[in-house]
Amino acid sequence: MRGAGTIKAVEEQEAFGKIQTYYIITMALNGAQIMIPTHQTAQSNIRRITDIAELQNILHIFQHGQPHTLLPWRERYKQNTAKVKSGTLQNCAEVVRDLRHMQKEKPLNTSEKQMLAHAHTFLLNELVLIPGITENELNSFS
């Protein structure tokens, strides 16, 4: 998972002796450019930015969903890692919600602090790209 990016171009280039079509994507977080073959979009988890209607659902889950904190640390970490790696905005919002809830009860260990920071950065980087998002909606996740 690399985070949100914008397709800046579609180019044909020669690779392995044949012409292939690539998406040229600029990453929002660090401005890095990556090239992904267009025929491999399914395997690379490329998806459209979340729309404003789905954002409302995610916001509701973030604010009103029940945190999943009863699992033992190892199981919870494994589950949260899978959610973050999925690359979906909803899963990252759930990880941020759950870890913040736990943080209020007791200090997080180093691994969970890093996961919280990573998931929160991923979340905010995509949120700022959603057309029509308001400042209040964006601040709800901060």
UniProtKB/TrEMBL annotation:
Q: What is this protein called?
A: Transcription factor YdeB
Q: Where is the CarD-like/TRCF RNAP-interacting domain?
A: 1-100
Q: Name one GO biological process term.
A: rRNA transcription
Gene3D superfamilies in the record, alphabetically? Answer: 2.40.10.170, CarD-like, C-terminal domain (1.20.58.1290)
The record's annotation in InterPro entries points to: CarD-like/TRCF_RID, CarD-like/TRCF_RID_sf, CarD-like_C, CarD-like_regulator, CarD_C
Q: Which Pfam families does this chain map to?
A: CarD_C, CarD_TRCF_RID
